[in-house]
Amino acid sequence: MISESRLKDAERLVRITMILILLTAGTSKLFSEGGFFEYYSQLFQGDLRINLSPLLVNFYLTIIPFIEILLGLALLSMKNKIYAVYGWFIFMLSLLFGHYILQEWSAVNQMLSYIFLGLLCLILPNHSFWFSRDVLSEKASLEN
Predict the structure, then answer these.
(1) Which of 111, 115, 112 is nearest to 85 (CA)?
(2) Is the dihedral of CA 119, 125, 130, 135 positive or negative?
(3) Using an 8 Å Cβ cutoff, are 66 and 31 in contact?
(4) DSSP state of 100
(5) Which of 48, 73, 99, 119 is the most buried (most CB within 10 A)?
(6) Burial class, 122, CB count within 10 angstroms (exposed 0-12 / middle 13-18 / buried 19+)
(7) Residue 102's closest CA among 24, 39, 59, 55?
(8) Handedness of CA 113, 119, 122, 123 (dihedral sign)
């Protein structure tokens, strides 16, 4: 059986991975000098089976970097972890939906791994604080 302490360590690594993904993606989009926005805005105005309003698409493309940075920072909070993870799911599902509309099937498949990262973060227990390990509570439970 895997010890609770190791499961908590695994959750910490998964959450750090999620934070790095979000902060890196958000900041790279902010500093792309409009490249991200222009690229995807043009793609969504092509000949697609599902056509969304350009106003809606452009608004969402504008706020994506801020959502990523906000979610990345929210995942740093132990107290609000559950809300941040649910935010992760909603955001990743929105990206999956966008790739589906664009008929980018390989990107749709790749999005599933991001969903699984969130699932791991959701089900694994976490340490009480970022810079400590809850080893004492585990030792006490083993003694009883």
Answers:
(1) 115
(2) negative
(3) no
(4) H
(5) 99
(6) middle
(7) 39
(8) negative
d(CA 108, CA 66): 22
The model's pLDDT over 62-104, given as tens digits with 9 standing for 90+, comes to: 999 999 999 999 999 989 999 999 999 999 999 999 999 999 9
Helix axes 105-123, 81-101, angle to 10 degrees: 170
d(CA 128, CA 106): 38
Q: What residue ranges do the domains of the chain occupy?
A: 4-143
How much of the chain is in helix, strand and coil states, percent to nearest 5?
A: 75, 0, 25
Question: pTM of this prediction?
Answer: 0.86
Tokens (6 digits) for 63: 């706020």
